């Protein structure tokens, strides 16, 4: 029995004020098991007597010893059952299942004494019934476990689901048959043996799951991975070994058979489950019962789901097309409504998540940037950098400060618990989640054994779909290969399933708020295109995940009811890259005009490796054997990252201007973040003005501003930031325009957004926004992406917010168009909704940031 089961029943008994009476079924069960022990003793004595009469020693006939040992085991089980041990009931179930299946096998194929087989079968079935009748369940299970079983059982009561389960059971027998056929080292002598093996595999998997869960929890992620590989193999191997009529040549063949079985069962789950997340939902919910029962406070919780990169226009398009049945049903049924909000500049995940979760994004000019205070580059997917960025932005009153949980984010929102959260991995400063939370996922066929074939399938799909774009001549497109193939499999399968399990675990623990980021669509759209079939398929998968969360909440077994809020951090815009359009990169163009000293930093290469590195770093934070191994491996990666930092660091004193020939001088670094570009002169601790730039590199600003692939550049002039285009300029602090307005065509918020971003202390010396083609609504990314975000143009700043209909947007937070503008404003709106539910008592609400209001002039 698990500790929480004992605690729950003890508290129930105390509340009742009297000792708990054993149900009749438990008394009968214990007596039946004790009688079975007595029978084994008698049979052992008879066997020993027969052996003695034959003149042989006891060692020559071990049946008596085996029977006596069996009797001792049965007596121990009877005592444990009498005391209420659920573990004893599990062990008894496995033993009786093996005996019952063996008796059924012998009775069916005519081996052995028919009467004995029938008697053994009948007694086994009788004891199993006694062990699992409702009265016994009330004795062995906690109130919460019974509620879970009742709720999950209610889901299966519809006629359609019962038919699907029946068909699935029949197909499972076929899967076992196919597994035996495909595994050379495994053989079956009849269909009855195959049926027996199918039953025993199910029983063994169920019984061994808690054992492997404890092993995996002890050894961290490596233990979880080993348990995923060998735990399933142990269940399949044990079942095949004890199944009558089945022959297994060795341990290796048992492992092979287990993986063949898992792959085939994954296909069966896709074909016959009402939802492909049925198994994951049930398993994650059951495993979450291992936690401590939280206090009931009567408050509803909120599940915030970030649909990374999904724009409001795309959501509307797909809802109208009927391709998002869950979200569409919420809107049509009136449970939810939605609106569009403006992400601002930069329209990137770091800026938006810092604003939404922490309440401030003032010092985040791009995905990566030269940090003048630190004297080095900062990357938001680096744990140390993310930790520094969060410390700068956090007041301690983040969105998740009141009993919240962060799952798969860049920043924590000041949550009490963080899973797969980059900033939480900084020197282990924040709890990253116990190994148990991951082990529960990895050690079950519904976890890794299900996710791994799906991951491989996604990789195969990517290879095919990438080649198909080439064959069809789809434009614009980028090369789709290398690490991205693995990345797509991880984000669209493994990470998605793990996120679902962790969110369910958080809700079962009673978290008051949960914020999870699903990056599936964003990652695929970067490489495939904004509305390409594979990108939309990933969006449909997120809709299915939402249906899974909806079903879980409807079960009513979590400590609190949950409301669901959907939010995106930005949208995406499509187009050919700057290099595809003009034959050279932005870095090459700048380098040609600054004496060859410009260096490019590949932003998306760093961003793309995020999920895989995050998984590895989470491993390293576990207090386990695997954590220490991972730490050593990551030191090598950190050393490589440091080498990159050194390559873009400013020269030593004495190596600056005037210290050498023409090649000497400051390093100039060019960064592309979607169609938003940045140029830093790293030797200067202050942002260079237009006059400084012209004196050092005459003609550079004019060359950039008049380039057909650049919409406008933003630099600091004497009176403040100014946007310069090919035929005019726009003074951002005053709104004054000279000549043609370079911001025309980029929306009504362009001036305010760039004025705010240009005031950041780490803003680049030169901001660039690519040109925008209104005919095709295309922009030109300064990195190798066909779908991008970061600047202005297209759908990239048009984010979405979907929320319960009875809630409303606070008019005081909306602009004159009734729209929420900026991630910080969205943060304040989400905080007010939490306060509406009674959350955040005693937590101060941060005042609005001044930089989010009107553009501020820069003093001369």
What does this structure look like?
The chain is built from 29 helices and 23 strands.
> Which stretches are low in confidence, meaning pLDDT under 50 for 5 or more residues running?
1-18, 427-433, 624-630, 650-666, 850-860
Structural class: alpha+beta
Indicate the percent of residues in helices: 40-55%
Q: Could you tell me the mean pLDDT? A: 79
State Rg. Answer: 32 Å
Largest sheet: spatial strand order: 12-13-14-19-15-16-17-18
Count the beta strands: 23
Strand content of the residues, in percent? 5-15%
> Biggest β-sheet, characterized?
8 strands, mixed
In DSSP terms, counting alpha (H) and pi (I) runs of 4 or more, how many helices? 29
Shape estimate: elongated
Q: Termini separation (Å)? A: 73 Å
What are the defining features of this structure?
860 residues; alpha+beta; 8-stranded mixed beta sheet; 7-stranded mixed beta sheet; 29 helices; elongated; disordered N terminus
Summarize the structure.
With 860 residues, the chain is an alpha+beta fold. The protein is built from 29 helices and 23 strands.
Topology:
Layout: H1 3-16, H2 24-53, H3 63-83, H4 86-109, H5 114-132, H6 134-140, H7 143-155, H8 159-182, E1 186-188, H9 191-242, E2 246-248, H10 251-272, H11 278-287, E3 301-307, H12 312-320, H13 325-333, E4 336-342, H14 349-358, E5 368-371, E6 376-379, H15 383-393, E7 404-407, E8 417-419, H16 435-442, H17 448-472, H18 483-508, E9 513-518, H19 520-528, H20 533-555, E10 562-567, E11 573-574, H21 578-582, H22 586-593, E12 598-601, H23 603-608, H24 610-621, H25 625-647, E13 668-673, E14 676-681, H26 690-696, H27 700-705, E15 710-717, E16 720-725, E17 728-731, E18 737-739, H28 750-758, E19 766-770, E20 772-773, E21 778-779, E22 787-788, E23 798-804, H29 823-836
Parallel strand pairs: 3-9, 3-10, 7-8, 7-9, 12-13
Antiparallel strand pairs: 1-2, 4-23, 5-6, 10-23, 11-22, 13-14, 14-19, 15-16, 15-19, 16-17, 17-18, 20-21
């Amino acid at each position: 029995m698990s500790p929480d089961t004992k605690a729950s029943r003890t508290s129930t008994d105390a509340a009742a004020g009297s000792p708990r009476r054993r149900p009749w079924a438990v008394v009968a069960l214990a007596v039946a098991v004790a009688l079975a022990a007595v029978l084994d003793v008698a049979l052992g004595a008879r066997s020993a007597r027969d052996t003695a009469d034959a003149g042989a020693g006891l060692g020559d006939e071990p049946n008596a010893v085996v029977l006596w040992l069996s009797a001792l085991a049965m007596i121990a089980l009877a005592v444990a059952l009498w005391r209420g041990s659920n573990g004893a009931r599990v062990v008894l179930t496995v033993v009786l299942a093996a005996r019952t299946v063996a008796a059924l096998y012998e009775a069916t194929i005519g081996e052995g004494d028919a009467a004995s087989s029938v008697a053994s079968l009948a007694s086994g079935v009788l004891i199993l019934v006694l062990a699992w009748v409702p009265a016994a369940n009330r004795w062995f299970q906690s109130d919460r476990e019974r509620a879970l079983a009742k709720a999950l059982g209610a889901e299966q009561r519809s006629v359609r689901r019962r038919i699907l389960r029946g068909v699935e059971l029949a197909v499972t027998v076929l899967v076992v048959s196919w597994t035996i056929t495909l595994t050379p080292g495994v053989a079956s002598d009849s269909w009855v043996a195959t049926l027996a093996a199918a039953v025993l595999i199910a029983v063994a998997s169920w019984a061994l799951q808690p054992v492997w869960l404890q092993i995996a929890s002890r050894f961290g992620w490596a233990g979880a991975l080993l348990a995923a590989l060998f735990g399933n193999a142990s269940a399949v191997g044990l079942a095949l070994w004890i199944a009558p009529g089945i022959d297994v040549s060795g341990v290796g063949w048992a492992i092979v058979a287990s993986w063949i079985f898992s792959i085939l069962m994954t296909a069966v789950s896709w074909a016959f489950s009402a939802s492909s997340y049925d198994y994951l939902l049930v398993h994650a919910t059951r495993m979450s019962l291992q936690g401590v029962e939280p206090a009931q406070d009567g408050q509803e919780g909120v599940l915030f789901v970030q649909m990374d990169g999904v724009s409001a226009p795309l959501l509307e398009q797909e809802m109208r097309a009927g391709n998002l049945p869950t979200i569409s049903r919420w809107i049509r049924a009136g449970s939810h409504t939605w609106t569009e909000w403006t992400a601002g500049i930069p329209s990137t995940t770091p800026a938006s998540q810092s604003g939404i979760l922490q309440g401030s994004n003032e010092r985040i000019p791009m995905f990566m940037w030269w940090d003048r205070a630190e004297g080095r580059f900062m990357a938001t997917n680096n744990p140390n950098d993310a930790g520094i960025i969060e410390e700068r932005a956090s007041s301690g009153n983040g969105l998740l400060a009141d009993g919240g949980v962060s799952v798969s984010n860049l920043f924590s929102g000041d949550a009490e618990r963080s899973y797969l959260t980059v900033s939480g991995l900084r020197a282990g400063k924040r709890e990253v989640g116990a190994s148990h939370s991951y082990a529960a996922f990895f050690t079950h066929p519904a976890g890794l054994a299900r996710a791994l074939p799906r991951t491989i399938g996604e990789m195969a799909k990517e290879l095919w779909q990438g080649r198909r774009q080439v064959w069809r001549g789809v434009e614009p497109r980028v090369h789709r290969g290398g690490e991205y193939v693995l990345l797509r499999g991880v984000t669209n399968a493994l990470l998605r399933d793990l996120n679902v399990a962790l969110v369910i675990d958080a809700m079962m623990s009673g978290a008051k708020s949960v914020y999870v980021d699903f990056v599936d669509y964003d990652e695929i759209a970067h490489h495939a295109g904004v509305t390409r079939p594979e990108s939309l398929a990933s969006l449909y998968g997120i809709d299915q995940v939402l249906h899974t969360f909806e079903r879980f909440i409807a079960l009513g077994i979590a400590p609190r009811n949950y409301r669901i809020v959907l939010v995106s951090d930005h949208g995406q815009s499509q187009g050919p890259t700057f290099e595809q359009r003009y034959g050279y990169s932005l870095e090459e163009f700048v380098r040609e005009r600054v004496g060859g000293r410009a260096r490019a930093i590949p932003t998306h290469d760093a961003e793309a490796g995020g999920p895989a590195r995050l998984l590895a770093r989470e491993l390293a934070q576990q207090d386990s054997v695997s954590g220490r191994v991972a730490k050593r491996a990551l030191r090598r990666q950190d050393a490589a990252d440091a080498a990159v930092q050194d390559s873009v660091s400013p020269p030593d004193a004495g190596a600056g201007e005037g210290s050498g020939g023409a090649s000497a001088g400051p390093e100039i670094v060019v960064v592309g973040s979607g169609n938003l570009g940045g140029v830093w002169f790293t030797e200067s601790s202050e942002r260079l003005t237009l006059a400084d730039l012209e004196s050092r590199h005459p003609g550079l600003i004019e060359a950039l501003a008049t380039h057909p692939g650049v919409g406008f550049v933003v630099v600091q002039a004497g009176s403040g930031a100014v946007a310069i285009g090919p035929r005019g300029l726009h003074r951002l602090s005053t709104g004054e325009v000279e000549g043609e307005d370079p911001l025309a065509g980029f929306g009504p918020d362009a001036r305010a957004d760039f004025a705010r971003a240009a005031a950041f202390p780490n803003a680049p010396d030169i901001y660039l926004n690519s040109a925008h083609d209104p005919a095709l609504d295309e922009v030109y990314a300064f990195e190798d992406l066909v779908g991008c975000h970061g600047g202005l143009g297209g759908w990239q700043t048009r984010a979405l917010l979907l929320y319960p209909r009875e809630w409303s947007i606070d008019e005081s937070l909306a602009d004159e168009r009734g729209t929420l503008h900026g991630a910080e404003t969205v943060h304040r709106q989400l905080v007010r909704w939490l306060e509406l539910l009674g959350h955040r008592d005693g937590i101060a609400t941060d005042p609005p940031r001044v930089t989010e209001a009107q553009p501020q002039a820069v003093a001369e």
